[in-house]
């Protein structure tokens, strides 16, 4: 290519020199493999010419020939594995030229201006990054991983673009960000660099094959060769990146500085959107169908809250990069499904237990359902915990004429019979179906049957009474947290196609890039108590579920978000002190003695 030589001459010959160092490792490995055969040839020739007559040369020659044959056989198999093993391919959403003609035109124009080969294809990844990926390996063609021009022998790499960039960035900003990435096709076309990269990828694939199939005699030498060439391969890639950056300096360099600020902002908003908004939906078997559109709302909100980001929203009047796509909504849905697969382990296809959800329906179909599912799990855990022997079960079932649990209304909380019961035993037991049967019984008879601890149905008062711990020992909270952890682990364990949200994932249950570490028992307990409080507020105080683009599920009271609940719940969970939460409930008019709807 006309740009290849000039790129390597532009201050970065180290990329080629490092590539040659990697290839020397390959040459030395080949020499070691051929050494026994060369020695065998010398011995056989010497024997045939009579120079090594007599003992012990016949035996030595035979032994060396046998060793050479074994080494050649093993080396041939190893070389075949390295050459034929399929290197890893990043899961992406392919983007054909018909689906994005303007984007392909922009990329080709960049390549022409920098005098480098144009990428053979474009694909999208649900992450805030962009790179070039070689998919022209022969193993890819044999396994039909790629069926387009990118799989042809000698094809240029595929340009992988982070989908959040297309929705948040403007066209000019995207062009500036992609320029140094596209410039990398020049060094990629150099024969020595391409050969060195192929050797490293082949070794990496051989390690994977050997490890998966228990072939240590393949994995071990591949790991050794990788260690020997790791430093040179790393420096080679740095040299290639430096070459590409230098070549791209003449293309929109001033705008690139501003665009890099948008990259950092996009990453921050995307991370919050995934962990706070998408993750709760994924855990329930729902996946937001338009994550990329949501990132615009999240980043706009972040810009509004962050003084350092003032003025960024004025960019929204310019043409967004997603206008370069023919059907942005279809592409957004495909990348959103891939994000659920990569970051949560969801299935690759939608199904009855893995369905999309629109942002307008998110509060009702995700937030409210999440709260009620967690509230039901909390009461089921209370049902499963045994009441200590010899202690009273709690207050008797209330009369229907006085309401679900004695005097009602916020003013009755401090002196009601329910509040008095909360200072009793911190235990709960009874049939597992008591909590679930509560709402139906209430609807039929006007009252809820008492649970084994004496509280009427699934009430917030029951939770407050159990967790109240004047001594501050925390034993009740620890027991309940442990029970919730076990119950949640059983629910999320894959169990075939039938079952709940966690079970729906089946054999694709392990995410490639987990978003969060496992939650502690205390965190789970706080989440479930918060969900129970929100359910009580919705059912008895006119509150509503809502969506915050940066924080996920929120409680709305009178249309305003209430962000002061978390410290009061922690005071109950960690210290056993319900007073701050009771004051908060009384201020909102929430009736903790009233049974809540769990479904």
Tell me what the structure shows.
- This protein is mainly alpha-helical.
- 56% of the residues lie in helices and 6% in strands.
- It has a 4-stranded mixed sheet with strand order 1-2-4-3.
- The relative contact order is 0.09.
- Residues 1-11, 387-448 and 495-507 have low confidence and may be disordered.
Strands of the largest sheet, in order across it? Answer: 1-2-4-3
Structural class: mainly alpha
Approximate strand percentage:
5-15%
The average pLDDT value, as a whole number, equals 80
For the report, how would you describe the main beta sheet? Answer: 4 strands, mixed
State the gist of this model.
With 599 residues, the chain is mostly helical. It has helices spanning 2-9, 14-48, 57-84, 101-114, 138-142, 163-168, 171-182, 185-188, 191-212, 216-248, 253-283, 291-305, 328-344, 362-384, 417-421, 434-445, 460-467, 475-492, 521-541, 566-575, 579-588; strands at residues 93-95, 121-125, 131-133, 158-162, 286-288, 355-357, 544-548, 552-557, 560-561.
């Amino acid at each position: 290519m006309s740009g290849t030589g000039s790129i390597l001459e532009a201050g970065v010959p180290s990329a080629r020199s490092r590539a040659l160092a990697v290839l020397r490792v390959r040459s030395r490995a080949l020499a070691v493999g051929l050494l026994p055969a060369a020695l065998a040839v010398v011995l056989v020739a010497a024997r045939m010419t009579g120079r090594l007559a007599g003992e012990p040369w016949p035996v030595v020659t035979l032994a060396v020939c046998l060793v050479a044959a074994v080494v050649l056989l093993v080396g041939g198999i190893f070389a075949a594995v390295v050459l034929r093993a399929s290197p890893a391919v990043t899961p992406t959403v392919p983007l054909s030229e018909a689906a994005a003609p303007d984007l392909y035109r922009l990329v080709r124009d960049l390549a022409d201006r920098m005098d480098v080969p144009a990428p053979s294809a474009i694909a999208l990844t649900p992450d805030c990054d962009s790179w070039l990926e070689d998919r022209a390996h022969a193993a890819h063609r044999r396994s039909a991983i790629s069926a387009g021009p990118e799989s042809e022998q000698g094809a240029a790499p595929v340009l992988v673009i982070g989908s959040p960039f297309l929705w948040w960035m403007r066209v000019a900003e995207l062009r500036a960000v992609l320029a140094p990435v596209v410039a990398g096709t020049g060094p990629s076309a150099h024969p020595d660099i391409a050969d060195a990269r192929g050797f490293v990828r082949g070794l990496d694939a051989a390690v994977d094959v050997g490890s998966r199939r228990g072939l240590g005699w393949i994995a071990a030498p591949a790991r050794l060769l990788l260690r020997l060439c790791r430093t040179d391969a790393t420096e080679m890639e740095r040299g290639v990146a430096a070459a590409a950056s230098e070549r791209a300096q003449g293309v929109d360099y001033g705008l690139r500085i501003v665009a890099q600020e948008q990259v950092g902002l996009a990453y921050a908003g995307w991370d919050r959107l995934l962990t706070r908004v998408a993750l709760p939906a994924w855990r329930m078997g729902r996946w937001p169908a338009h994550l990329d559109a949501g990132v615009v709302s999240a980043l706009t909100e972040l810009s509004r809250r962050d003084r350092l980001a003032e003025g960024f929203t004025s960019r929204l009047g310019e043409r967004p990069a997603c206008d370069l796509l023919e059907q942005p909504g279809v592409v957004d849905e495909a990348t959103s499904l891939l994000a659920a697969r990569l970051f949560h382990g969801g299935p690759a296809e939608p199904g009855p237990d893995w369905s999309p959800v629109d942002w307008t329906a998110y509060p009702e179909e995700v937030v409210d359902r999440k709260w009620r599912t967690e509230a039901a799990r909390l009461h089921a855990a209370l049902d499963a915990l045994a009441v200590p022997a010899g202690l009273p079960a709690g207050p008797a079932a209330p009369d229907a004429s006085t309401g679900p649990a004695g005097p009602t209304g916020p003013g009755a909380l401090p002196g009601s019979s329910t509040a008095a019961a909360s200072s009793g035993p911190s235990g709960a037991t009874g049939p597992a179906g008591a909590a679930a049967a509560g709402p139906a019984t209430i609807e039929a008879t006007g009252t809820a049957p008492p649970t084994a601890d004496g509280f009427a149905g699934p009430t917030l008062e029951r939770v407050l009474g159990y967790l109240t711990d004047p001594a501050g020992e925390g034993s009740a909270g620890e027991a309940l947290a442990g029970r919730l952890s076990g119950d949640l682990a059983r629910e999320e364990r894959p169990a075939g196609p039938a079952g709940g949200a966690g079970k729906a994932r089946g054999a694709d249950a392990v995410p490639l890039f987990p978003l969060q570490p496992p939650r502690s028992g205390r965190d789970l307990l706080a989440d479930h108590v918060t969900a129970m409080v929100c359910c009580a507020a919705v059912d008895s105080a006119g509150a509503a579920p809502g969506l915050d683009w940066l924080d996920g599920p929120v409680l709305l009271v009178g249309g305003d978000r209430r962000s002061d609940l978390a410290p009061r719940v922690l005071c109950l969970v960690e210290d056993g002190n319900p007073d701050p939460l009771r004051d908060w409930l009384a201020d909102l008019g929430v009736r903790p003695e009233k049974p809540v709807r769990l479904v």
